[in-house]
Specification:
CATH architecture: Roll
Structural class: alpha+beta
Number of domains: 1
Largest sheet: 5 strands, antiparallel
Number of strands: 5
Radius of gyration: 19 Å
Strand order of the largest sheet: 4-3-2-1-5
Order of helices and strands: HEEEEE
Strand content: 25-35%
Distance between the termini: 58 Å
Length: 88
């Protein structure tokens, strides 16, 4: 049994240093994407910044400046919410 103790210890270290933080980050991203609403300013994976116009089940429509062009994206393409309209 003592021969397997170092392997178990290495497994625990990997879990707490690698897998658990990745799971927390993934959960945080999923919550952020689920909470998207009209008026939020977001950044996509391609670096496009725009304001959310409509939110559907798995897509969003962004208004992109300077010409107010509307582009449709998958919700999963949003990497961060830059700011919301109600908070400053």
């Amino acid at each position: 049994m003592l021969q397997f103790a170092p392997y178990l210890l290495i497994g625990l270290v990997f879990y707490f240093l690698l897998f658990r933080p990745m799971q927390k980050e993934k959960k945080k991203t999923q919550e952020m994407v689920a909470a998207l609403k009209s008026g939020d300013t977001v950044v996509t994976t391609g670096g496009i910044t725009g304001t959310v116009v409509t939110v559907d089940s798995d897509t969003i429509v962004l208004r992109v400046k300077p010409d107010n062009v509307k582009l449709q994206f998958a919700r999963s393409a949003v990497t961060q919410v830059a700011n919301t309209e109600g908070t400053k």
